Every structure is written in C-alpha cells, then in structure tokens.
C-alpha cells in the first residue's frame, strides 16, 4: 500500500497502538480485471506483540550434531487443559498426533516462557539468526546460523501450539554456545540482493521416532536466541512429516515473509529500502526483519501476525494437521494429494507457477482448499539457487519493472514476475481462490449475505448480520473469473474505493471434482479464531467465526 493509505488507516487506531507503523510498499498498478482496484502489497496494521517425497529439505545439511538435550520441566507452568475445550471435536481420528501433543504438561516442557517481550527484542542486531531451510522433515537436519555482539548466547527451541493456552512446549535447550560475529553479507548492486554466508552453525538433528510421532511432531518451531546481554530474537522453521497423510495440511507463506524482509537494506518494497529502492532478488540466507510487522517480526517473519492464530485454533480443537511451507508446495507439489484439505493462511501473496499448478491440481483431484486470508496469489515469482548452490534460497520478483528488466519476459513471458491476473500471465486469482485482491487499508466489519445452512449451522447469523472487526487489513472480491455457482457468504460494504458500491466478499464454491474451496477474503478472519497478539484492537476472537470455520473444516475432512 502507499504511505498515505497507511497513514489513513493508522489514524483510526493510533491511540491504541503501542508499536509504530513502518509504512507500506508503494506500487504502480495497471488496470486489473477487477473493478476499483488500488495497489496491493501492504503490511498489516502495526500491533503490539507479547510476545515429497524427496528427502532434501531445500538442499543438503551437514552431518547432525546429535539429538538436542531434553527440555527441563517448567516450574512456572501449573498444568494444562484438555485440548479443544468447548470447541467441536474433529471428525475422524480421535487420537491424533496433535491431540496427544497438546495434552502434554509442564513435565514435558509446556510453558508460556517462549515469548520475547518488546523491551527484550534485539532491534539493533544484538543477536539474530536464520535457518538453512524454511522447513525440515522429521529425521533430517537443519542448520541454525547466529550472529551476536555478545560473547555467549543460548538457543531454546519451542514447538508452537495450544498446550492449554500456554502456547508452546520447550523441546530443546537451553543450548549454550560461544558468540560469533559473522562476516558482512555479499551484495549484488544490480538486483539489490543481500545474502549471508555465515559460519559455525548449530546443527539440529530432528529425530524421526517411529514409536512416538509426538517426538518433534510436525509444526511451527521457534528457536529463541538469548544473548548474554539479555537481548533476544527468533529463528523460525517448520518441521514437516513427509510420511503423514494428515487430514489437513497447513502451508506457511514464507515467500511473503521474504518479500517484506528488508534485513540488510532491501525488500520488494522501496519504502523500506535504502534510498527508496526495491530489490529484484531476495535471499532466504539472512535473518527476517520486517518494519511493517510488530517489533519487526522479532525474526519470525509474518508468523506472529496471522498464522499463529490459525495454528492455535487448530491445535486447540485437536485437528489432524501437519505443516509445510510454500517452498515445499513448489518443491513437491504432489504432496498436497496426500491430504483431504490444504490450508493457505494469512498473507499468501507470492506464488511460483509450480505453487499455483499444485493447488489447481489438488483441487481438480478432489482436495479441498481453504484460503484463510486475502491478497492471495497476487504476484508470480520465481525461485533460484543461493550463491552456494542450495536450491530455493533466492526469490526473484521484478514486479512493475518486469517488462523492462525481467529477462524471462522475452524468453518465457508466462513466467514473468508480474501480476497473475494480467498479461502475459492471464491467470486471475479468482479462478482458483474464488475471490481476489481488491483494496487496502481497511479495519471494519464483515456483513453476512447468503450463508448456506451447513456452513452457518450453530450460529444465529442471517443476511445482514455483522461480524465486528473481521474486515481487513486487505480484502478480496469476486471477479468475472470467479467460478460459476460461487456462493457469497458475506458481502461487506466499505468506503474508499473509486467506485460507488465498494464490497468485499467471502465465498465458497464446489469444483467439478467435488472439492470445496473457501475464500475468507480478509486477513482479519484469523483474529476471529484466536485472540493472540491482537492487543491493539481488543480481543476479536468471535464464536461465529470459529463455528463457521469448524463447519467448513469438518466438511473438508469427512471421509
């Protein structure tokens, strides 16, 4: 979004916000197939935090350094509660890995001490790090690279879930290490590519205990780095289970993490770049630092903004879910076919052609799709090797400079890094998602339209009912390319667009294969599922949003 749009949005809630806005990206959109379109690519409202088969996790890892030490008991944790609480139990397996994992207690490392307080965040690079891959399969290794000005530091690794409301379980650490001041990154001035080549990693071997699938179960993991001086930051990675046939597959949108990461001076948004310049190539070989997210994401990319809310919701209810990233969707597209439903959550804005093809193929083979976000699949990008030859470590996106600078535009224009809905790509997002990006910046209410009985069962919702605070930050609408027979679950008016009747939409359609496709059309939907990290707005956790989501997921996973 533009800086002026950001200012207009924040002026509505500035008195509630404890963390300042870092500004949004600028853009120069061409005409789109939707009406009254304005530039996308914005950050969310700043908010205070409390803080397949191929075995290669994005390239080879060095030999393992052994299994990490077991976590200590947490004396601050007084116990746990039964996962799910009063939420509907999931269909199918009543003893899923997720239920067993979330039933663990303080004796197993369950704790609320995983969060980084704002005052402790290493905002001046006192300690920071990155992982050698965005995900790692059980039984493989991943390298954690750390830079710090302090002589010593520790690594404590947490699996994120519900855990009776505590939010995490300590699975390794604290691991004590000698501090290293890492070399300066390399810099490609033409593409504004900043890439690290750090040394002395901690090599984490993730066990694959066939007798206990909860031993490093698939999920989101945060490695909390604590320097001897007290400053902290995260390294984030996903543990996959490539042998899993879980009912749900939750995809983390790490390409969007990369797009907004301006560590070293450049992201895909000139407003966050040195001298207002944007990068054309971005490396995953660097820490995450995002001025458009609370406390710059604290090293966890966009995870703490939207994705964590869905993860907590799913694990609280005990759904049979496993986790991956969209790099894995690109790398192993057929893996989507091993699940009944695929979930894209939050801000899944940047797709490769392989990612888009994988989702379309899954839908056409009967895999249900849930798009719990907005501005989904807006830009096409490509992936290249890192300078060390490791695959999928560089993301390429020329965006509005595509026609002048992208070499692929002349040789294979369909793979140009441009808008999916525009020529030369001509694959509008709505033809898959049901809706596509229409507007920012919003923070408003969702208005129900024609909600089928099975979707709104257990609620008193009817046409005209309002879901407060569920509209924003970016929103989507139906388009001429939306599939036939699509149902408008919500049609929400908003102001600010150039047309007279501005409406955002939440939709559902059934593909010829029988697969269902849900599009929330709003990022705020995830805040209705769980109240984590929404302190700037008050608790938006909403019974109706949770019930609708349960109804859709139950339908998705039924045999």
Secondary-structure-based class equals alpha/beta
Provide mean pLDDT, rounded.
86
Specify the biggest β-sheet.
7 strands, mixed
The outline comes out as globular
Number of strands: 25
Fraction of helical residues: 10-25%
Q: What does this molecule look like?
A:
This protein has 559 residues and is of the alpha/beta class. The protein is 16% helix and 26% strand. The protein is built from eleven helices and 25 strands. It has helices at residues 3-13, 97-102, 254-259, 303-317, 326-331, 353-364, 402-405, 408-411, 430-433, 453-456, 543-557; strands at 110-111, 127-131, 135-137, 141-148, 152-160, 168-178, 186-188, 193-195, 202-205, 219-227, 232-240, 248-252, 281-283, 321-325, 341-346, 350-351, 368-373, 379-380, 382-384, 394-396, 436-447, 466-477, 487-493, 503-510, 516-519. The strands form seven sheets. The protein has a seven-stranded mixed sheet, sandwiched between helices. The protein is globular. The two termini are 42 Å apart. The relative contact order is 0.15.
């Amino acid at each position: 979004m533009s800086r002026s749009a950001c200012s207009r949005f924040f002026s509505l809630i500035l008195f509630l916000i404890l963390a300042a806005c870092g500004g949004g990206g600028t853009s120069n959109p061409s005409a789109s197939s939707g009406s009254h379109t304005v530039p996308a690519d914005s950050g969310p409202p700043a908010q205070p935090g409390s803080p397949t088969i191929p075995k290669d996790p994005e390239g080879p890892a060095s030999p393992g350094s052994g299994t990490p030490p077991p976590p200590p008991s947490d004396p601050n944790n007084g116990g746990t509660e039964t996962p799910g609480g009063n939420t509907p139990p999931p269909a199918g397996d009543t003893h899923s890995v997720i239920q067993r994992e979330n039933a663990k207690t303080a004796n197993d490392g369950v704790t609320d001490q995983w969060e980084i307080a704002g005052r402790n965040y290493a905002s001046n690079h006192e300690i920071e790090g990155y992982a050698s891959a965005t995900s790692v399969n059980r039984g493989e290794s991943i390298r954690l690279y750390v830079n710090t000005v302090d002589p010593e530091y520790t690594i404590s690794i947490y699996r994120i879930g519900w855990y009776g409301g505590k939010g995490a379980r300590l699975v390794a650490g604290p691991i004590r290490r000698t501090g290293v001041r890492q070399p300066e990154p390399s810099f490609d001035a033409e593409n504004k590519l900043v890439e690290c080549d750090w040394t002395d990693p901690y090599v984490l071997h993730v066990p694959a205990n066939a007798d206990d699938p909860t031993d490093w179960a698939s999920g989101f993991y945060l490695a909390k780095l604590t320097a001897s001086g007290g400053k902290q930051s995260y390294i984030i990675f996903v543990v996959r289970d490539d042998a899993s046939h879980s009912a749900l597959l939750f995809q983390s949108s790490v390409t969007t993490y990369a797009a907004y990461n301006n560590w070293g001076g450049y992201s895909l948004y000139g407003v966050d770049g040195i001298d207002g310049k944007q990068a054309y190539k971005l490396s995953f070989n660097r820490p995450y630092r995002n001025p458009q997210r609370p406390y710059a994401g604290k090293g966890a990319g966009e995870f703490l903004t939207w994705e964590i809310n869905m993860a907590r919701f799913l694990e609280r209810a005990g759904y049979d879910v496993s986790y991956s990233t969209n790099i894995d969707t690109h790398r192993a597209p057929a893996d989507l076919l091993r699940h009944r439903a695929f979930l894209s959550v939050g801000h899944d804005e940047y797709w490769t052609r392989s990612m888009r093809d994988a989702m379309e193929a899954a839908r056409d083979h009967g895999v249900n799709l849930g798009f719990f976000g907005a501005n989904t699949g807006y830009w096409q990008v490509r992936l290249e090797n890192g300078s060390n030859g490791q695959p999928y470590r560089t993301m390429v996106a020329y965006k509005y400079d595509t026609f002048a600078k992208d070499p692929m535009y002349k040789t294979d224009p369909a793979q140009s890094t441009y808008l999916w809905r525009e020529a030369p790509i001509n694959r509008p997002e709505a033809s898959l998602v049901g809706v596509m990006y229409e507007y920012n910046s919003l923070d408003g209410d969702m208005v129900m339209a024609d909600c089928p009985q099975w979707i709104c069962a257990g609620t008193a919702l009817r046409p005209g009912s309002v879901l407060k605070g569920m509209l924003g930050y970016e929103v989507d609408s139906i388009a001429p390319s939306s599939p036939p027979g699509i149902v408008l679950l919500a049609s929400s008016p908003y102001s600010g667009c150039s047309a007279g009747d501005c409406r955002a939409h939440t939709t559902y359609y059934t593909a010829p294969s029988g697969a269902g496709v849900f599009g929330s059309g709003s990022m705020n939907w995830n805040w209705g599922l769980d109240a984590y990290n929404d302190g700037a707005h008050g608790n938006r956790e909403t019974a109706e949003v949770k019930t609708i989501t349960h109804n859709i997921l139950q339908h998705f996973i039924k045999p």
